[in-house]
Model the fold of this input.
Amino acid sequence: MARKFKNIIVNCVHPGYVVTDMTSQTGYITVEEGAKGPVMAALLPDGGPSGVYFNQTQIAPFASPDL
Done:
């Protein structure tokens, strides 16, 4: 999608294992901590990374826009 729509930033974010009903409260991080990655990705500036996979707030090392 990032290759097709060059004028928008397209990324994927894994928020981490968050304490929620979905995880039966067994997660390792709070909802607030889990929100950091998606919020960071939503606020990337023009020209920021696109076509990558974020693990929380870091680009996953196996993810590359060249794939």
User: Anything to note?
Assistant: Helices lie at 31-42. DSSP finds one helix and three strands in the chain. The longest strand covers residues 12-14.
